[in-house]
Predict the structure.
Amino acid sequence: VQPGFPEYQTNSWQADLDVNSVQGTQQVPATVTVPAGMQATLGLASGNLGMAWDLGSGAAPLIPTSAGALLSSDGQIVNLDVTDPTLSTWFNFLQGPTWGPVTSLSIPFSLPSAISISAQMIVVSPALLSGVALSQPVRLIVQ
């Protein structure tokens, strides 16, 4: 990978994921640390109303492009470890509800014990060559 080449996917109007509003960059992932039992907020947003969407998560750390992250046909980066045996999706990989009627959701949550979770959102996008838009990846560390 060449210097300055994107290591991590960033959010867009089509797929936006954050925890406690933390944003990553193309070089640094969004990493959020919260105490066990403390409330945090999951933020999800997309302008792709009516499109299927999902949220993938697993225990494995995020993978940067330089370490073998997958690239979509239109250059988006899948920073989740697709070989992680704990990797799962909320809706059986795009088999759940469509996005809407609002463009954003804020979901408060808390986790009672120490855990580390990586997550990334996917939203169907007929406008993109790959057919999907990816959000930034988020690494949540509860300690």
